[in-house]
Structures are given as C-alpha cells and as structure tokens.
Amino acid sequence: MLRLFANLVIVLACIFLIVGNAGPSFAQECPDPTKATNASAQQKQPSKRYDRALPSYRDKSARYNLALVGDSLIELWQPWIKDSFPTRPVMNLGVAGDTTQNALYRLDGLNLPDFHPADVVVLIGTNNLGAKTAPCAVAAGVVAVVSKVRALWPGAHIYALSIPPRGKRYAFYEDVRIPANQFVASSLAEMPGVTFVQMNDDMLRCGKPSDKECSNYKPDHLHFNEGAYKLITSFLAAAGLQL
Fold first, then answer.
1. Is 176:30 a contact under the CB 8 Å cutoff?
2. SS3 for 101-137, per residue?
3. Which residues form the signal peptide (predicted)?
4. Which residue among 12, 122, 194, 242 is least crowded, i.e. fewest CB within 10 A of its CB?
C-alpha cells in the first residue's frame, strides 16, 4: 500500500506539472485532482452481471490471461468478447456507471489472488466528464486507475484507451475530454509496461462532429454497437495487443 501511495503521489505531481505548463490561468483553475481518486468516498453497488460473473472469475481465475477494466463501455462489450479476442480467455471487470473513483473502490476490493493476466485493457473516465470537472482532475482519476491496475498485476502490460466522444453531435464536453486525454497520454508515457491508445475519434463517430446518426453508437450517443467494438479491437491490435 505504501508503494502504491508513493506511485500515486508521483503521478499526481506529474499531472500538476503538465497542467502548470499549459498556462497559469488554467493551472490556477484546476481543482485538487485527488477528488477524482477518492475511492473510499465512492462506494457503489456492482451490476448484476458483475455480481454473477465474479465468483466464477475467482474460482477459475488461473485460466484467464486478459482483463478488461472500466465502465459500461467495457461491460457492454460482453456479447462480442469472443469475436474481439478469439484466442484469449477474457475477464470482463467493467461495471456500468462507474467513475474513476468507483473503479478504484472496486479494484481495492477485488480478491483474485490466482489471477495473473498477461494484459489488461482499461477504458474509464467518460462518467467523470462534466461542466464542473477540469481536464486535469479527469486525467488524475484515469491515471490512478492505471496505477492501481499496475499495482495489482505488476506483470501485465496495460493498454489504456482514450476517453471516446459521446453525446449530442458526439461532442459532449469536448473542452474537457480532449485535454484530459492529452494529460493522460503525457502522464503514462514514462510509465513502464503501459501503452496509451489514442482512438480515432472520427472513425468512432462516423466522421467529424455532426447531428447525423452513427451506426457505431446506440441511440443514446454514448454506448457502442458492434461496429465500434470492432474498431476498438483494431486500435488495440495496432498498439500491439495479441487478440
């Protein structure tokens, strides 16, 4: 725990440094990023799928070699998991509605002593986007989740996916999402065993931001259809993940 805390302090310091380089006005407006990493204050009940799957994951954890960690964008991948990763037994640890804080709380309570994945995919942060949330705070939460995954499974290679576009015109809080992804990319660049995967936003949303419907998304303009998961799989493969 002391080692994890020390690593987290270093990560937060790096994010403050990045924010500081972005300009004094932005740095002054950036709130304390520890708000996005306060797992103890963000307890949340897991989904029914997660509740049902976890005992089986625990009993048979030795057979799995790939984990997915995140929110609904990870959990709802489940119907296409076998198509996306045909050679990999995948443990889907995503929970719908989770923020970075929720994910940290969940990972804190994860009891999988026999699970030693070769790779972990992380997709988290969309539920932290909002008008009153600064990009550095969102980034701090994402980086904290990646750091927690590193502490849990030090032998795994981690693939951290960028926060994808969503919402009306697929442009929900772009002023928060885009710089948050940039901060995460910079913060993770020097972390060993971690690859930041910047997804192609225009490919995901079927072009530049517009009012047209994109078949990669469900009507809520947040959750993905099969086409989006095929794209994400291709982004991961291009980044080096064995499928």
1. no
2. HHHHHHHHCCCCCCCCCCEEEEECCHHHCCCCCCHHH
3. 1-27
4. 242
DSSP string, 154-199: TTSEEEEEPPPP-SGGG-TTHHHHHHHHHHHHHHHTTSTTEEEE--
CB 206 within 8 A of CB 216: yes
User: Is-above-0.90 flag for pTM?
Assistant: no
Q: What is the pLDDT along the chain (243 residues), one digit of tens a residue?
A: 444 444 444 444 444 443 333 333 333 355 655 666 665 556 778 889 998 999 999 999 999 999 999 999 999 999 999 999 999 999 999 999 999 999 999 999 898 999 999 999 999 999 999 888 889 999 999 999 999 999 999 999 999 999 999 999 999 999 999 999 999 999 999 899 999 999 999 999 999 999 899 999 999 999 999 999 999 999 999 999 999
d(CA 116, CA 23): 42
Token reading at 36: 């996005």
Phi then psi for residue 121, to 5 deg, are -105, 130
- The three-class DSSP label of residue 41 is helix
